Each structure stands twice: as C-alpha cells, then as structure tokens.
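Its record is quoted verbatim for completeness.
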Amino acid sequence: MRMDHVSYACERDGLLATTERISAALGVDAVRGGVHPRFGTRNMIIPLADHKYLEVVEVLDHPASDKAPFGQAVRARSAAGGGWMGWCVAVDDLSPFEQRLGRAAVPGNRKFPDGRELVWSQIGILGLIADPQVPYLLRWEGDPALHPSLVYPSDVKMSSLTIAGSAERVTEWLGEPVEKPLEDVAVQWMAPHGTPGIMSVTFETANGAVTI
C-alpha cells in the first residue's frame, strides 16, 4: 500500500488552461494523458519524484461520464469551480476492499498514441464522493514501465497534504494506519468546516516549496 497520485478537477476554463497554471507554478511541463473511455474523462499528467504523479482531469460530454462514479465525481468538482478532487493509494490486492465494500473493482484503461495501453482496476470512488477525505484505491496491471510517474524523470516532490478530516477516519477506511501509504508525505489534518477533503498540496520544486 503506497501513495500513488493526487487528482485535480479542472477549473471552469478547461483542462489545458488549468494544467498550464499548475505546471507553471511547479516549473515543469505537463504531458497529455489521454481519454478514459470507461469513465468519460481525460487527463493531463505531471510526473513527480518517488513514483508519484499529479493528474488534472476533465469530464467529457460522453454517456460514460453520467454512469461511471469517477466521471460523476469529476463533473461535480469541476461544476463547483474545480480543485483538488482526491488522492489515490496503490495496492497489490484489491480483494480485501472488494469484500469490505461489498462490490467489485472496476477496470480502467487509456491508450497511448503508439497503441500501448495503460490498464488498472480501481475501487472506492463512491466512498470518495460521500466523504472526500478518504482515498480511492487502485491496482496497476500490465507493463509497470507505463506508470504515469515515469513519463519523464522529475525532481518535483510531493511533500505534504492539508486535509479537512481526521486520520482516524481514513485509517478506518483503509483498514491500516494512514501513515503507511503516505510514507514521507506529511499530512496536516484540519477539522472540516463544510465538505471534508484535500485543502492543499505542497511540493518541493527547484524554486522552493509551492503550495497549490
């Protein structure tokens, strides 16, 4: 179990403009991810150090986005003005979470222009929609060299999160201490005034600490 990535729903001016602001603040380039046909979304990727990444995601005018919880989550966050949507933990085995949540993980995929395909399974988006402080979970499948953090070598490091919520609640959700997947990413927990969830993420960059 380890921290994998953070997801930012695009703001009202769309995916490209939102991504440009974030990449400029971090002093690095973003790359096109692609369309998630099962979810009705598409994303841009900013690789980070330590096998992590930041994705900026946009909902598409596509039937899948009305049916898939991930598409619903992106649509709702963008409709509220955009911003941090959630964080994701990668695990080797999703079956304990399938048993605990009483439903099966769903497959995800996106194709690269050269025909290679990034494949994974995920679960927990309904939990994130109900309580945005909790992470969703995924299991990467296929070629590990296609992990989004490996698009190019990055020195930008995710150093800390500020989350409106409680460590106890997230530990209960994960079934293990929340500190385990976070490893070297510090978390400041704040009492939620309104909706819980990620308030900000701080990155260590070539120009110092940047908080988004």
